[in-house]
Design goal:
single chain; alpha+beta; 14-stranded antiparallel β-sheet; 2 helices; globular
């Protein structure tokens, strides 16, 4: 009987582990849900008081684009994003808010409603514009490394996982959606210590890479 119970417990544990999102597989779920303020979730890109510069690559439907991306705050909660080739050709110039998008310029084949909506959402996530001021969250305490915490936000119209290093106050990974609609955002230091960000849309042939510049 004891062996049967142990076997059943092991099977349940393995089933749970296989179903758990990779972002929380080295973490333990905490107690009751908590209210987490927006200020506790540091954005991957903080352009609130400076001009952010990145080398960028965009791969979309067998087409490759690379160049320089500039991000600058233009008003309260509004940011201008300019993407140009290293030779100076403008690829897009977008003004992005939490619920707004102004297209100043965009070339084909990027100038499509669905692609522009994805850009608006991706940059909103990077800049933290999509996060409400207060959020009901399940907290996961990670074991590898122990300095990481994952917040699972569950509010009407929005669900997502946010993984942070609480010592450095750095957002390391964001996961939104599931299955073919899953989008992952990962931030990590490159070999020079600068910030590198990778965005991957699982169900689309679209990936974006940002490599920070001084």
């Amino acid at each position: 009987m004891m062996k049967c119970l142990l076997s059943a417990s092991l099977c349940l544990l393995l089933a749970f582990s296989s179903c758990a999102p990779s972002i929380v597989r080295t973490c333990r779920k905490g107690g009751e849900a908590q209210v987490v303020g927006k200020e506790q979730l540091s954005p991957m890109v903080d352009a609130s008081d400076r001009l952010c510069k990145y080398n960028v690559t965009i791969d979309f439907m067998r087409k490759h684009f690379s160049g320089l991306l500039l991000i600058k705050e233009t008003g309260a909660g509004t940011y201008r994003t300019l993407f140009s080739t290293h030779f100076g050709l403008s690829l897009f110039d977008l003004e992005i808010g939490a619920d707004s998008l102004i297209v100043h310029h965009c070339i084909e084949p990027l100038n499509k409603k669905k692609i522009l909506s994805l850009f608006q959402r991706d940059f909103s996530v990077l800049l933290g514009l999509n996060i409400p001021s207060e959020n009901k969250a399940t907290v996961y305490n990670c074991m590898q490394p122990s300095t990481d915490i994952v917040y699972k936000l569950s509010i009407p119209g929005f669900k997502g996982y946010y993984r942070m290093d609480v010592v450095s106050d750095r957002m390391q990974e964001i996961r939104l959606g599931a299955g073919l609609r899953k989008t992952t955002f990962r931030s990590f230091p490159d070999s020079t210590g600068r910030t590198a960000i990778r965005i991957r849309h699982t169900g689309l042939k679209l990936s974006i890479g940002l490599d920070g510049l001084d």
